[in-house]
UniProtKB/TrEMBL annotation:
Protein name as annotated: Small ribosomal subunit protein uS10m
Domain of life assignment: Eukaryota
Taxonomic classification: Eukaryota, Metazoa, Ecdysozoa, Arthropoda, Hexapoda
Keywords of the record: Mitochondrion, Ribonucleoprotein, Ribosomal protein
Stretches assigned to the Small ribosomal subunit protein uS10 domain: 56-154
Naturally occurring in which organism (per UniProt): Vanessa tameamea
GO cellular component terms listed in the entry, alphabetical order: mitochondrial small ribosomal subunit
Keyword flag Manganese: no
Gene for this chain: LOC113402674
Length: 170
């Protein structure tokens, strides 16, 4: 009984709902029911999935440890999806970009400062993928791309020989 009395005192919204029972029920006359329509647009032709002979991933970053960890992550994700990883390697040396600036803009040409940016690379080659598997894999690894890293994807697609090209006759 004390619990109901405490609820009655503390919750004016509950008290109003209990006193005005008409607010709880809504008349059915205002509700409109729309009938379900059958689907008329049925695709007539089945669209075939793309086939990729090779997908090359090029990863760039400023920290080699982060790149190594991310490449392990990509290889693990590929193995879970059943994608064949043929090659995974890194360049031996980093690409260095140097900028030389004067300490003072006006004079003292001898006093210079050099800044250097190092970019590290890692590469992964994947073989024999379908379009849906490739899209799923790439979206997953792009969403988990760490900061300071860039990803470049190159796809080699298998296509049907065009009709205007005929095989050689013997």
């Amino acid at each position: 009984m004390n619990a109901i009395r405490g609820l009655w005192r503390s919750a004016p919204l509950v008290r109003n709902v209990i006193l005005n029972k008409s607010t709880l029920t809504r008349p059915f006359a205002t509700a409109t029911i729309t009938p379900i329509k059958p689907i008329e647009d049925v695709p007539s032709a089945i669209e075939l999935d793309k086939l990729y002979k090779r997908v090359e991933l090029e990863m760039r970053g400023i920290d080699p440890a982060v790149l190594l960890s991310y490449s392990w992550f990509c290889i693990a994700a590929a193995s879970h999806l059943g994608i064949e990883v043929t090659k995974s390697w890194a360049l031996r040396k980093a690409e260095k970009e140097r900028h030389t600036l004067l300490r003072c803009v006006h004079i003292y040409k001898k006093h210079r400062v050099q800044y250097e940016i190092r970019t590290y690379f890692r590469f992964i080659h994947l073989q024999r993928l379908t379009g849906s598997t490739c899209d799923t894999f790439l979206e997953y690894i792009e969403r988990n791309l760490p900061e300071g890293c860039a990803l470049k994807v190159t796809k080699v697609e298998c296509q049907k020989i065009p009709d205007h090209i005929t095989p050689p006759q013997e």
